[in-house]
Design a protein that fits this description.
The chain is 31% helix and 27% strand. With 322 residues, it is an alpha/beta fold. It folds into 2 domains: 148 residues, Medium-chain alcohol dehydrogenases, catalytic domain (Quinone Oxidoreductase, Chain A, domain 1); 143 residues, NAD(P)-binding Rossmann-like Domain (Rossmann fold), CATH 3.40.50.720. Strands 3, 4, 5, 6, 7, 14 and 15 form a 7-stranded mixed beta sheet that branches. Helix 3 crosses helix 10. The longest helix has 16 residues. It is globular and about 55 Å long. It comes from Sphingomonas panacisoli. InterPro entries: ADH-like_C, ADH-like_N, ER, GroES-like_sf, NAD(P)-bd_dom_sf, Zn-ADH-like_protein. It holds the Pfam family ADH_zinc_N.
């Protein structure tokens, strides 16, 4: 089969190449899936340089989540050949075939095509753990979502609206924010940085929850426009700078800084992790959340897809279709 293989850790994806490799061998308890769509996530890019928490042994095939069709499974798995499924893979998704633990596989919702189904799991799990499990967002609360035009940010916008929150979306691009305002009915959009005073004015003093996958200057400014008792969620550092905060600021302003590792949350609390996934896919099946696929690329054009994500040229998700 063809797969995108990372053989060395290097900048500018220099250690990545499309290659012919042996088909994966399915073991008992696994499902062999023919990949029809694999969602690209920012950690996939970080792993090509060894900059993510997960550091797999070389060589490896990246790709954290897929949608496709069952090729082979155990007779008692509940999955038969040809059934359309979605699966969280952690690794291996950017290939024509992948083996997945049967516990990480579920039927694809009929209302989503393969590309949109592949775009739900990781992004919405991060949003759900952040907003529901850690921040306990309530209807009517003000939620600021930074990096709102990326996959993880847009999932938070979408989920926050589904939870009944009032949402302020921020991004560097006013043009991209206009797309989000039109398609997701945000309560306000602001360019970032430079949002501090507008957030305070819109919310009447400060946001109840701030969801920050950007870090750097955006995090710094967020500490100045969060409400007393607010929750500032540290989701990532796409800006490239890991921010710091003097502890007198959260003390005086009475807010919490909460670190988010959604995948690790599910691994440490497996029962809650399964509940999270059940809740997300129930919302997806009911049409209450709406993943947005901005672009689809064939596996042979993986570099264009990676560069588009690196340069933030998308609104929502980028999908690779082997």
């Amino acid at each position: 089969m063809k797969a995108l293989v990372v053989s060395s850790l290097a900048p500018d994806f220099a250690g990545c190449a499309l290659a012919d490799v042996s088909d994966p061998m399915r073991r008992p308890g696994q499902v062999l899936v023919r990949v029809r769509a694999a969602s690209l996530n920012f950690p996939d890019l970080l792993m090509t340089e060894g900059k993510y928490q997960l550091k797999p042994d070389l060589p490896f095939v990246p790709g954290m989540e897929v949608a496709g069709e069952v090729v082979e499974a155990d007779a008692d798995s509940g999955f038969s050949e040809g059934v359309a499924v979605v699966a969280g893979t952690r690794l291996g998704g950017f290939a024509e075939l992948v083996t997945v633990d049967a516990r990480s596989v579920r039927a694809k919702p009929a209302n989503l095509d393969f590309a949109h189904a592949a775009s739900v799991g990781a992004a919405y799990n991060t949003a759900y753990v952040s907003l529901v499990r850690l921040a306990d967002v309530q209807p009517g609360e003000w939620v600021v979502v930074h990096g709102a035009t990326g996959g993880v940010g847009l999932a938070a916008v979408d989920l926050a609206k589904a939870l009944g929150a009032r949402v302020i979306a921020t991004s560097r691009s006013a043009e991209k924010l206009a797309v989000i305002a039109d398609e997701y009915a945000t309560d306000a959009t602001l360019t970032a940085p430079g949002f501090r005073e507008a957030v305070k004015e819109l919310t009447g003093g400060g946001a109840d929850v701030i969801y920050d996958p950007v870090g750097g200057d955006v995090f710094d400014e967020s500490t100045r426009c969060i409400a007393f008792g607010g929750r500032l969620l540290v989701v990532g550092f796409t800006s490239g700078r890991i921010a710091t905060v003097a502890t007198n600021i959260p003390l005086i302003k009475g807010f919490s800084v909460i670190g988010v590792r959604a995948g690790e949350y599910g691994r440490r609390f497996p029962d809650k992790g399964r509940e999270n996934q059940d809740a997300i896919w129930t919302l997806a099946s009911a049409g209450k959340i709406h993943p947005r696929v901005d672009a689809r690329y064939p596996l042979a054009d993986w570099r264009t897809a990676f560069e588009a994500m690196r340069d933030s040229r998308m609104v929502g998700k980028i999908v690779i279709e082997p």
